[in-house]
Amino acid sequence: MADYYDTLGVSRRASADDIKRAYRKLAHEHHPDKTGGDDKKFREINEAYQVLSDPSRRSQYDQFGRTFQEAGSSGGDPFSDFARGFGGFSQGQGSGDFGFDFGDIFSDIFGFGGNASRPSGRARGIDLQMDLVITFGEAVFGTEKDVSLQKLDTCPMCGGSGAEPGAKLATCGKCHGQGQIKRMQRTILGSIATSTPCDECGGRGKIPEASCKTCGGRGTKQQIKTIKVVIPPGIDDGQRIRLTGQGEAGYLGSAAGDLFINIKVQPHPTLRREGNHIVSEVPISFYQAALGTKIQVETLDGPVELRIPAGTQSGKIFRLRGRGVAHLGTKRRGDQLVTVRIITPTKLSRKEKELLQQMAQEKGEFVDVERGMWDKIKNQFE
Ligand SMILES: [Zn+2]
Ligand SMILES: [Zn+2]
């Protein structure tokens, strides 16, 4: 698949304005309703723009490429995601980071009104979102979770048709059985024919003579549903997973909305994540630092031996390769960065004090023992 930046012909450092400008130009050029238009190219452009115009999705793309989207969604066609989105993606989304309104730019370019440009009219189900708390380890290694939520789902009695079982079907008066409402739009590109599904019959051209009693003819009903969420290894706090078609059911069996899972990761008591690296600190004694030692370090994979060479200074960082977090969608892992902190001894026995004083003398250092052991150490050559 082509790189989104290449698709729009902009550099990776392009500003939001550059991207918008490049998109408008290309969308004009390749719009399928235009002579010489190219449907495939147009979809690619839209897909690229949908991602690059959204700061959080853009940074995700810069970091992970397309893997995240694919890992999270249940394999939806990116264009249908786009198409459903435009003209009203933000419905049901409060502060969603995908809350981009394509209606604006399209009404801008093609003179469509927001609603006319939505292929599924008002029938599409609403997007839902929910938070999911997972442990640090689950985020690192991936997991599967069952989530339960109450939502408007397909009516179990009529299967979404809205018809009372056994009811006869009559031709829809609004679309005359076509299922579509056609209209001509005058735009700067000339007249463009648009058709939207009929909102009366939900695009099916027929209306039942008796409505389903369970759902009142809407084809949907409030239900509690349990959904399996596959969490890819390497997901981080604040990222979202999109489950295509798992939002609320659409009117009369039309397309369902999507469910967005906001991932919240619980902190680990000793390990902290920085991108794909894990950072941690270990205390070692003054003696271990001076003489060298081997210590056990806690990692995501259990304890790992780390060799501390003689003469190690406090604050030195050791790298444990491949002990970090997987890059989303790959098996490649970051590293663990271990900072050693040297602990100055505090409770010293008489014997220890004497030995340390001897060491100080050996080094030619002045130690003011009278004023408390170590609160004043000076180099006599200063
Ligand atoms: Zn029903
Ligand atoms: Zn109709």
Kindly describe this structure.
- The protein has helices at residues 4-8, 16-30, 39-52, 55-64, 67-72, 78-85, 102-110, 136-141, 286-291, 350-362; strands at residues 128-134, 143-154, 169-171, 180-187, 190-197, 206-208, 220-231, 240-243, 259-265, 272-274, 277-285, 293-299, 302-308, 317-320, 336-343, 366-367, 377-378.
- Among the domains are: 1-119, Orthogonal Bundle (Helix Hairpins); 272-378, Sandwich (HSP40/DNAj peptide-binding domain).
- The radius of gyration is 31 Å and the shape is elongated.
- The protein is α+β, with helices and mostly antiparallel strands and 382 residues long.
- Helix 2 (16-30) runs antiparallel to helix 3.
- It binds zinc ion (2 copies).
- One zinc ion binds at residues 155, 157-158, 162, 212, 214-215, 219.
